[in-house]
């Protein structure tokens, strides 16, 4: 097991995911599962796509944020919530807070995608700017928390967020049983952590895999080194996957023996374009990476029935990556 600090909160159990599903019922969308015969032929496998790009705020993040917000006792909730986010989690928390009628504060690092910033603001959050470093994000969020009394809802290490993200896999496995493998992206690790916990309880024989950008492969590197990497500089088009994997998230990944597949940005952009051409789904690179991982590892998935979680669809239409790269 990786030798890293054990100071994080208690890892959520499957029961917490089941409770989260009940808590967010009627607030989060039940997202559809899509298929493409032509993509199946390219992959040499049967691929089923869980369309969290069609979730509220355009990403799975609403599940975790909604569970965290509605888990709070009223006395705490009345002071609002705060987080730091490059986009999807901030928008999700802002909307979740609005469903409960409480304030939301979102710390935005420099360089965040403008369309995602616009969404956060549109959902009613108060924005706070900071430098594009994890230290600046955390310091600013802590300052806002101190000033307002708001509760910090971390994008991926909060157990309530992890449990909420796990409802995507819980729902998916109810829609399409008997999968050979389930693959989700990994950045900070909230989605893959919840996915692994849910999968272990529902389908323990099923493989769980994580797709990670080659230019932000801190999870893969941490597993190889046997310790969590804390000084990694990400370089990837997948803006939603640039965060370092959290300590609690890495622990869950290790416990459930999640296999991490690294993927080039070029392969991810090609997969993003393919999803638009064949399924008419416009997803962000951080979501398309799961298809790219399967296509880059055909031998590992040949002839199998694979579930893929398309994590989000918040794309800046003025900056489509294949227009810039010619992919």
Shape: globular
Give the ordered list of helices and strands. Answer: HEHEHHEHEHEHEHEHEHHEHHHEH
| Helix-strand category | alpha/beta
Largest sheet, strands/sense/barrel: 6 strands, mixed
Briefly note the CATH topology name of the largest domain: Rossmann fold
Q: Could you say what the CATH architecture of the largest domain is? A: 3-Layer(aba) Sandwich
Strand elements, count: 10
How far from one another are the termini?
40 Å
What's the CATH class of the largest domain, please?
A: Alpha Beta
Catalogue the unreliable spans: 1-6
Number of domains: 2
Estimated radius of gyration: 18 Å
What keyword list fits this structure?
alpha/beta; 327 residues; Rossmann fold; globular; 4-stranded parallel beta sheet; 2 domains
List the helices and strands and how they pair.
Layout lengths: L13 H11 L8 E2 L2 H7 L2 E6 L9 H11 L2 H4 L3 E4 L3 H13 L3 E6 L4 H9 L3 E5 L3 H15 L2 E2 L6 H17 L5 E5 L4 H13 L4 E7 L4 H8 L21 H9 L3 E5 L1 H15 L5 H11 L2 H4 L3 E6 L10 H5 L2
Parallel strand pairs: 2-10, 3-4, 3-6, 4-5, 7-8, 7-10, 8-9
Antiparallel strand pairs: 1-2
